[in-house]
Structures are given as structure tokens and as C-alpha cells.
UniProtKB/TrEMBL annotation:
Domain RNA polymerase sigma factor 70 region 4 type, first and last residues per copy: 123-174
GO biological process: DNA-templated transcription initiation
GO MF term (any one): sigma factor activity
One Pfam family recorded for the sequence: Sigma70_r4_2
UniProt name for this protein: RNA polymerase sigma-70 factor, ECF subfamily
InterPro entries xref list: RNA_pol_sigma-70-like, RNA_pol_sigma-70_dom, RNA_pol_sigma70_r4_t2, RNA_pol_sigma_r2, RNA_pol_sigma_r3/r4-like, WH-like_DNA-bd_sf
Family listed: Belongs to the sigma-70 factor family. ECF subfamily.
Keyword set, alphabetical order: Sigma factor, Transcription, Transcription regulation
Length: 188
């Protein structure tokens, strides 16, 4: 009889490399297929699966995982999205004579944009800090870690409707707080 995911994870947390190998064999093909469905790049998908399992092993004493399929699916989505963002980023091209650079390729200093992003991140953190702990947790699982409502409900052992209600409350709170900020940006 095959060991459960929970039993394997407990053994892994006690440094059992054999249990890690069993968990890897159980899930690597599913994770690769999920990543490949979004990227269609074999090498990138292999690297993503490798990175996820490497993190599982190196962080095994710190991670708390209740549902492996949900955790691994979310990790794969996150890594694929990160890979896509990195692939979309334009590299900077340097030239000794900026006047000869074509205007369509001109890169610009994004310092001001970065400062606005940092300000927005600080405001978001402050706004989230005003929410109840459970509401914050659900919002972060949904919007940052990109878990589905069903995955969140399963992980937190609550109903899907409770997840939806908490997300609605969080989004309503953020809309009210950011309304003035967005108006300021629109005028600026």
C-alpha cells in the first residue's frame, strides 16, 4: 500500500530522502504537464519542476503543507507566471551614442514608476493590515499565491462561500481606501 502524501511529508520533515523521492515520483509528471500546458517549453518546465522540488527539500522544516496537490498546483502556476514575466522583460541595450539609438528602442529610466509602485505596495500592506487576520490570509492566498477559491477552502478547511465572502469584504475595503489614490494618479 502506498504511503499518503501526509505521511510522506512528515517523513520528509524528518530528513527522509526516500520519502522525498517517492513524493517526487508521484507528482513530477503532473507538475511538468501543468507547466508545459502553459509554456510549451520543455527546458523551462523541467527547471520549474526542479525549482519547486528543490524548495520543498530545502524548506522542509519550515513549510506547512496540508494538501500537496493544491500546493504543487499553486507553486507551478506561480513559477510559470514568474517565468513569463521574466521572459517578457526587455533587456537594456547600451550605446555610446544615444542620439543614434532609434526612438522605438529607446529605454528610459523607470525610477519614478518604481517609486510609485513602492508607494502603492506600502499602501496595500497598510490597507491589508486593517483587515482581520483570516481575511488577509484568504486575500493573499487568492491574489498573491493565485490559489483558486476551492483550493483556499480546502486548505483552510472552510466553505467556498466563506472564501468568497472574505474576498468580497477585502476587495470592498481596498476599493474604498484606494479610490482617492487612484483619482490622484488619474489627475497627475
Amino acid at each position: 500500500m502506498a504511503a499518503t502524501d501526509a505521511a510522506l511529508w512528515e517523513a520528509i520533515q524528518h530528513d527522509d530522502a526516500g520519502a522525498f523521492e517517492a513524493l517526487y515520483q508521484r507528482y513530477w509528471q503532473r507538475m511538468f504537464a501543468a507547466a508545459y500546458a502553459r509554456l510549451a517549453a520543455r527546458e523551462a518546465c523541467e527547471e520549474i519542476v526542479h525549482d519547486i522540488f528543490l524548495r520543498l527539500w530545502t524548506e522542509r522544516h519550515r513549510l506547512q503543507i496540508d494538501c500537496f496537490p493544491a500546493y504543487l498546483a499553486a507553486a507551478a502556476r506561480y513559477h510559470v507566471a514568474r517565468h513569463q514575466r521574466q521572459a517578457a522583460a526587455r533587456p537594456l541595450h547600451y550605446t555610446d551614442a544615444p542620439e543614434t539609438a532609434s526612438p522605438a528602442r529607446a529605454d528610459y529610466n523607470q525610477g519614478e514608476t518604481r517609486l510609485l509602485d513602492l508607494d502603492l505596495e506600502k499602501r496595500l500592506a497598510a490597507a491589508l493590515g486593517q483587515l482581520p487576520r483570516r481575511c488577509q490570509q484568504i486575500f493573499l492566498l487568492s491574489r498573491v499565491q493565485q490559489f483558486s477559491n476551492d483550493e483556499i477552502a480546502q486548505q483552510l478547511h472552510i466553505s467556498r462561500r466563506s472564501v468568497e465572502n472574505q474576498l468580497t469584504a477585502a476587495l470592498r475595503h481596498l476599493r474604498v481606501l484606494f479610490k482617492a489614490f487612484l483619482l490622484l494618479l488619474a489627475i497627475w
